[in-house]
Amino acid sequence: MNLAAALQVAPTSTQEAVAYPSLFLLVVIGALVPVVPTGALVSSAAVVALHQSTPSFSLLVVFGVAALAAFLGDIALYWLGRRGMRSKNGSRWLEAIRDRAPEERLAQAQAKLKDHGVMVLVLSRLVPAGRIPVMLACLMAKMPLRRFAHGDAPACLAWAVTYQLIGILGGSLFEEPWEGVALAVALTVLLGAVPTVWRRVRRAPA
Q1: Contact residues for 163 (Cβ-Cβ < 8 A; gap 6+)
Q2: How far apart are CA 71 and CA 6, in angstroms?
Q3: Using an 8 Å Cβ cutoff, are 192 and 95 in contact?
Q4: Angle 38-50/55-86 helices, nearest 10 degrees?
Q5: Per-residue pLDDT tens over the stretch 45-69
Q6: Predicted TM-score (pTM) above 0.85
């Protein structure tokens, strides 16, 4: 490898060495504190990966990092929630979960959990703002951590695939990565807004 080639490879390697751990950390934080737009992060990472010298490998790494981080974040939050459920005084983590699960959404999640079991976890990960109500329903049903993990694993895989596909779509339409990132973020924001708009339309007087 000549010097010019080495100088081209080095920055890319450095970027990837920083980007993947950052993506992992941000997705874990987003699972624990549901204010970080983790879907947009994964889509943006997929756009950047698509423009790397080895896009197939980069996309595979993004998928693995995102799915694993989401799973570990969910498991950690569920474990913290279970500790709060067993404690007489509760916990701030349990209160945070309850605060983000409106009564109507919680009732729907409980009904779906009763009808479909852990498979409802897959859908909850794909529906914006659906994860926390279903997690609280699982906590209130005293679902064991192992059973929750069995349902959450395919949910995280499906979630990572979905948002990565959004990123691939955005990245494939433009030559510049920033344009693909902008489109991917716009699509994820739009998807996140659809349920809220739909609920308001349904509640609007005829």
Answers
A1: 39, 40, 42, 43, 46, 66, 188
A2: 36
A3: no
A4: 160
A5: 898 888 887 889 999 999 999 999 9
A6: no
